[in-house]
Amino acid sequence: MNSSFDKTAAQRIAIVADDNKRTSLIEWSYFNKNVLAQHELIAIGETAEILEGTLKRPVQKIFRRHTGGYEQLARLMEAEKIDILFFFAEPAIEKEKDNDLKKLLVLAAKNNIMLACNSITTDILMKNVLNTMNEVAPVGGSRRFIKQILPFINKAAF
Predict the structure, then answer these.
(1) How far is CA 131 from the centre of its chain?
(2) Are residues 77 and 108 in contact, defined by beta-carbon separation less than 8 angstroms?
């Protein structure tokens, strides 16, 4: 992702969901379908099929995890073709999957891709980045973004 973030442009959003998170994915995507409809969605195999069913719109499908989906997603991240990555995942039990997830997390950090791995970061991105695309364009990169999300974080403070 470029260092300057354009909130007026459609974002390229990759979504990864474990089998045991399908219900959460369906509920989340249905609730956020109007916001998600403004963006390009990319998902691995069955996740893409679920999103297409819920959102009633096409989703760019990449391979399933076992047939190279994580590697394909990694290549998209390295080529700066992903702006935001949403994970609906449980901590991995199997070592192979754990290594795949770690690689994607490292690539997200390395390529400055916004990342949500739990419900609070998902909510922050949805409410403060995607849902307000035409309201305030950040000036000064991440410092401005942090100022925008601080009120939300303060509300969620423990």
Answers:
(1) 14
(2) yes
Locus of tokens 């399933």: 64
**pTM, to two decimals:** 0.74
| Segment holding 92, helix H or strand E | none
Q: What's the distance, CA 22 to chain centroid?
A: 15
Structure tokens at 42: 């990319």
Parent domain of 134: 12-155
CATH number for 123: 3.40.50.1380
Please report whether residue 118 resides in a domain: yes
Query: Which tens digits make up the pLDDT trace of 82-97?
Result: 999 998 877 655 656 6
Q: Give the dihedral of Cα atoms 12, 18, 19, 24; nearest 10 deg.
A: -70
In a domain, 2, yes or no: no
